Queue: 2 jobs
Job 1
Amino acid sequence: MATSALLPANPLPPARRSFRWASLGPFLILAATASLLHANWLLIPARFPVHWDLQGQVNGWATRNFWGVYGMLLLAALFCALDLFLGWATLHWAGHPRGAASPARRRNAAWALLACSYLLALAFSFVALLPLRGASLSAANALVIVPTVLIPCAAAIAVLVAWQSHPAGAHPRSSPPPEPHHQAHWVAGVVYYNPDDPSILVPKQFGFGYTLNFAHPLSWWLLGATGAAITVAMLLSSPH
């Protein structure tokens, strides 16, 4: 048997391989948190707060059972999976109604989504570990600590993405003017609907980021999955 037959016909580019391996990070964080909770199961109170009002008063409780302890981590895994799917789709399926999208721009968008997944995993892990701290960490402290950690991280990610998009000394090329044929597929300049375009994600006409090609069936599946995740999040976070 020829050696070439054992090799993949189209090996992944280095950027995509790196993204694939880095995508494991958020789930490893969540798995490590779940292992820590499991190892300290008896230290978790039988009933612990999970929801606070704006005044910091507890108005929601959970019990020490599977969903009460691990539900937050499962929800985070769902959100991270959606985030990483968007990043993967940006690398593989993102097109441009006026030609190929910039590979650098697609990489930056995908890595920004990956960074958001890391932030989600860290934030949800922090909240999931609160029962182990007992009453020593109040809701007010939690409401201060989480934004203090996440906001600077989010700002750093935004600066990094902007810097990579326009590195020092580089002269960004101007985009070609939109062709009338493709311009007709934009509804109010916001919604893109083009049945002849196989791309699922296309760059927005205004601002940074990508939007869905609503003529592609997979776009609606993605919207449905996002809506389901939000519904589950609301049900799990509602006071009870």
Job 2
Amino acid sequence: MSSAFLRRVNSTLARHHLHAVSRLNWFHAPRGFTMVARIFQPTKNAMQSGRGKAKFWLLEHERETRRTIEPLMGYTSSSDMKQQIRLTFESMEEAVAYAKRNDIAYRVSVPKERKVRPVSYSDNFKYNRLQSWTH
């Protein structure tokens, strides 16, 4: 690895270390690492009403090469096979332990807490309702 690359990684590590408390994201790189993985909890799909499939944690590798567009048909391809790997874990700690055990540099993105507003069905029929009736 070049020294410029290592300087850039060290500055990234310093930046992530400074923001670890405020943004709850951090970066860990073992000595002589070659690939970086992202550990995150996926968001709810827009087509879903529930959050049942968004409770697990994912570990996926970040891109190392750009995607290329095939000129004749317009297909998108990449020579980076690590993009196809998506590992699921029950908790963030399991994903971090897996990355440390296999000497994979990782970056953790912790999601923001959801604010749940309790709303009941009877609020639609209140006498002092602020908005007009819609149907």
